[in-house]
Each structure stands twice: as structure tokens, then as C-alpha cells.
Amino acid sequence: MVLATKLVLVVRDGLPAALAVNAAAVVGLSLGGRLPDPPAAEGKDASGGVHAGLNPHPVPVLTASGDRLRELHDRARAREDLITVGFNEVARHARDYDDYLTALAATPGEDVEYVAVAVYGPRKRVTALTKRLPLHG
Question: What is the pLDDT of residues 98-127, one digit of tens each?
């Protein structure tokens, strides 16, 4: 089955593995709450156990420099047909969500450094923005 939409996670290159996994999880969870359709249907195993429906999209995790992440975030956000979530250093360093919101409100947009960006939307649009980025690994 070829899906008309695509989902990509991009983490900043050079992050230690634990931070990269955390950043991918944060943007993945945040993106999931914004998607227009629920995950696929629940499935049953041969013993009758029910398993939660999973995201039907392959989810490539790519890597990019901090500058390239900012460019990706800005270009994707400018498109109405894409859903974009960015995880930034302000959030990563905050102790709780209220601290994050307070610190973010005091940070000029040009000073926000991205740790990860998730992009979802029409397959061709997402591919055009991310096709030159390497797989994380």
C-alpha cells in the first residue's frame, strides 16, 4: 500500500544517542496529536490478544545540522499543507512545561535552536524538503 502522505523525523546531527532518541520521541508524540486521522485499526494476535493500532507510515529518522533544521522547520511551517513540530533547546533545558513557555516567550525566534523537527503531509512535498538528508545512524 502506497500512502499519499509521508512522515519524517529529523534530529540534529552530533547528538548523543540518548538525546537523539528523546528528541525523536518528543516530536513524534507531539506530531501524533496533530494528525488528522487516527492510527490504523487495532489488531488481534492468534491468541485473541488485542494490540493497539500503530502508525501505518514508515518513519525515517534523518539527521541535519542545526542550520538545516531551522531551514527545514521554517520552510515546512510556511506551507499550509504540512504539519510541522519542532523540539528546541529552550524546551530541552526547561524543568517543566510552564518554565518552557516562560523561557520561550523571552527568546527571540531567531535564537531558537532546533534539536529535532517532524514533518507530515503530502508525500511529494515532504520528500522535496527532506530527500537530501541522510538517515540517522
Answer: 999 999 999 999 999 999 999 999 999 999
Distance of CA 74 to the CA centre of its chain: 14
Bridge partner list, 63: 11
Q: What is the CA radius of gyration of the chain?
A: 16
Strand 114-122 and strand 83-88: pairing?
antiparallel
- Phi-psi region at 121: left, alpha or beta (left = phi > 0; alpha = psi -120 to 50): left
Q: Which three cell numbers stand for residue 59?
A: 518513519
Q: What is the dihedral of CA 119, 120, 122, 124, to 10 degrees?
A: 30
64 CB contacts (<8 Å, ≥6 apart)? 10, 11, 12, 13, 72, 133
The Cα 7–Cα 18 span in angstroms is 22
The model's pTM: 0.91
Gap between the Cα atoms of 60 and 10, Å rounded: 8
Residues in the chain: 137
Query: What backbone phi and psi angles, to 5 degrees, belong to 129?
Result: -80, -25
Task: Give me the helix-helix angle, 66-77 and 123-130, nearest 10°.
Answer: 150
